[in-house]
Design brief:
Pfam families: MatE. Helix content is about 85%, strand content about 0%. With about 450 residues, it is mainly α. The radius of gyration is 21 Å and the shape is globular. The chain starts with a helix and ends in a 5-residue tail after the last helix.
Length: about 450
């Protein structure tokens, strides 16, 4: 097929560094723009409605994370298999995987949304809401539960477009969605005075427009994505879910992170602590998307090389990606260290107690980014090469097991500082464990072409 003729020269004959950069830059820009969708909500809500409303949508944000997690679970699982099939020159199988994955995503999203909608009030309390923040959390949550399927379909479709050799269109889709989200947030909040509901609607509408843009990919002559006759396969479903599971756990871990930090901050710093964490959490979403973008950049490459049995190109790609992630992490840490005050001011004019807590939190928490990027890249590598158990272990350790363990112990020693340091220590320990694992594996399994 024509798609094979286009992919083979770039994926198999261009230098590994050149191919990596070709996917990295659009992926980073696209993910940054996706984070703008979330951060814009916080900036506009913080300035227009104040700290309580900001805390309310921060409490409801795990709902967004769950939808995003489902799209990554099935999207990355399906896209990995898609790229492997293309690397193996089996385009018919690739199209079947594409169709199967999108149908699964749509159906499962609807089922989860309907169920969660019925229990949205107890769900809001479980996520950390109290009488002050409940109205805002419910308002934001209701919109996301009603239209969340737009988020999952758009993100999954974007993954397939990127894996079909068109990372630039995926980037354009996210840029347009981000710009439109900013415009709509301003209009709904400051002109129509719609409150938190308006901010959520702005995100949904902007995401829908981004999804429409992705359909331009079907107009390309070298497009291999194609909807074929729908069918259901338990074997393909299980394989898709297995490969994508680390990404799902990663996003669920983000929800655990948000809930865990909200609960810990209420316990150790009260409502001011929750407001301070909400500011940090928005900044964290931006940085998280940077490292997620690095992982998204290597996933199509590793999957394709695995299908084409190009082991050496796999290894070169992951080495470049790890070095890029580590250097980027140091830059981000230094930025947080010296620009913490400016980051807090970006989200509004807060009481001095909230501002002081947030600035201190950013300076401590940002040490995590020296390790987080490496962990993201390695998790994606193990996932894309179907070493799922290792990928799951990395994700469970850094975002759930170790984090919860540190949240339950460090505050008794360091107070609020112990809360801020829980994630940095988790990331550091996981990076060290990955280094030991890879070193031992390379001794037992020599790298050959």
């Amino acid at each position: 097929m024509s798609q094979e003729k286009v992919l083979l020269p770039s994926m198999e004959t261009d230098s590994v560094g050149k191919v990596f950069v070709r996917y990295l830059i659009p992926s980073l820009i696209g993910m940054l723009m996706m984070s703008v969708n979330v951060v814009a909500d916080g900036i506009f809500v913080g300035h227009r409605l104040g700290a309580l409303a900001l805390a309310g949508i921060n409490i409801a944000s795990p709902v967004f994370s769950v939808f995003f997690a489902m799209s990554l679970w099935l999207g990355i699982g399906g896209a990995t298999l898609y790229s492997q099939s293309m690397g193996n020159k089996n385009s018919k199988q690739a199209q079947q995987i594409f169709t199967h994955s999108l149908i699964l995503i749509f159906v499962l999203t609807i089922l989860v949304a309907v169920t969660a909608y019925q229990f949205r009030v107890p769900l809001a309390y479980a996520l950390g809401a109290n009488q002050d923040t409940l109205p805002y959390a419910l308002e934001y949550m209701t919109v996301l539960l009603t239209y969340g399927f737009v988020i999952t379909v758009q993100n999954a479709f974007s993954l397939f477009v990127r894996n079909d050799g068109n990372p630039n269109l995926a980037m354009i889709s996210m840029v347009v969605a981000a710009v439109l989200n900013i415009i709509l947030n301003y209009y709904f909040l400051f002109v129509l005075d719609m409150g938190v509901e308006g901010s959520a609607l702005a995100t949904v509408i902007a995401t829908f427009v981004g999804a429409l843009i992705l359909f331009a990919h079907f107009l390309r002559k070298d497009c291999s994505l194609s909807f074929v006759k729908p069918y259901f396969s338990w074997k393909l479903t299980v394989r898709t879910l297995t490969i994508g599971f680390p990404s799902f756990i990663s996003e669920v871990g983000l929800s655990v992170f948000t809930i865990g930090y909200n609960v810990a901050m209420v316990r150790w710093a009260g409502t001011a602590g929750v407001a301070a964490f909400s500011v940090l959490n928005y900044a964290h979403n931006v940085m998280l998307m940077v490292f997620l973008g690095m992982g998204s950049a290597i996933q199509p490459l590793i999957s394709y090389y695995r299908g084409a049995k190009l082991r050496m190109r796999e290894v070169k790609t992951i080495r470049i990606a790890v070095a890029t992630a580590f250097i980027s992490g140091i830059v981000v840490y230094l930025f947080g260290l010296f620009a913490a005050g400016g980051i807090v001011s970006l989200f509004g004019d807060f009481p001095e107690e909230v501002r002081s807590l947030a600035i201190n939190g950013i300076r401590l928490f940002f040490t995590a980014y020296m390790f987080m990027g490496v962990n993201f890249v390695m998790m994606t590598y193990f996932q894309a090469s179907e070493q799922v158990k290792v990928a799951v272990w990395i994700t469970l350790s850094r975002e759930i097991i170790l984090m919860v363990l540190f949240l339950l112990t460090l505050p008794y020693i360091f107070g609020t500082n112990g809360v801020w340091l829980s994630i940095p220590l988790s990331e550091c320990v996981v990076t060290a464990s990955i280094f030991v694992y890879v070193k031992r594996k390379n001794r037992s399994v020599p790298i050959t072409e």
